[in-house]
């Protein structure tokens, strides 16, 4: 075999290895992406089915219910336009309150209830996750336009 053919096989093998490595990295990144959705977007069907995503907004006043096990909590997340029922089993953050900002990560069940694996609450009076603040601002725009 000539040196030119050996060099061509080495280059082809290197390119194939590089392509396989890139495909594996892209697949790992895609499977670990967690997108943020508002209750309005989830109700519109924009959220992925069977995949983990985040939902954010405000915890609706007087919506929090605890089960007798002490760990399972049911509450409603709202973006002022639509509401989404959320179920979470675990210890809630200390700053979790009704009427405050929240981001929950989990999956949407077939019954339309969001089953959270993780719940994040804002950490002071001035902070809200940027995605949640933007979602609340966007949800208020159609309501403001309808009032005029």
Topology, pairings included?
Elements: H1 3-32, E1 36-37, H2 39-43, E2 53-59, E3 65-66, E4 72-78, E5 83-89, E6 101-108, E7 114-121, H3 130-147
Parallel strand pairs: 1-2, 5-7
Antiparallel strand pairs: 2-4, 2-6, 3-4, 4-5, 6-7
State the gist of this model.
This protein is an alpha+beta fold. Helices cover 36% and strands 28% of the residues.
Strand arrangement, major sheet: 2-4-5-7-6
The whole-number mean of residue pLDDT values reads 84
Largest sheet: 5 strands, mixed, barrel
Percent helix among the residues?
Answer: 25-40%
Strand content: 25-35%
Task: Name some characteristics of this structure.
148 residues, alpha+beta, 3 helices, 36% helix, 28% strand, elongated
Task: Write structural notes for this entry.
This protein is an alpha+beta fold and 148 residues long. 36% of the residues lie in helices and 28% in strands. The chain has helices spanning 3-32, 39-43, 130-147; strands at residues 36-37, 53-59, 65-66, 72-78, 83-89, 101-108, 114-121. The protein has a 5-stranded mixed β-barrel with strand order 2-4-5-7-6. The radius of gyration is 22 Å and the shape is elongated. The mean pLDDT is 84.
């Amino acid at each position: 075999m000539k040196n030119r053919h050996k060099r061509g096989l080495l280059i082809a093998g290197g390119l194939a290895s590089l392509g396989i490595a890139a495909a594996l990295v892209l697949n790992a990144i895609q499977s670990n992406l967690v997108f943020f959705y508002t209750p309005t977007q989830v109700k519109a069907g924009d959220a992925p089915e069977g995949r983990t995503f985040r939902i954010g907004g405000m915890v609706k006043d007087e919506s929090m219910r605890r089960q007798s096990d002490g760990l399972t909590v049911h509450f409603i997340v709202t973006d002022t336009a639509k509401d989404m029922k959320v179920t979470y089993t675990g210890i809630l953050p200390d700053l979790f309150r009704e009427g405050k900002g929240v981001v929950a990560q989990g999956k949407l069940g077939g019954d339309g209830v969001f089953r959270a694996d993780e719940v994040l609450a804002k950490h002071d009076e001035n902070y809200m996750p940027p995605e949640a603040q933007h979602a609340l601002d966007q949800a208020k725009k159609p309501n403001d336009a309808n009032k005029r």
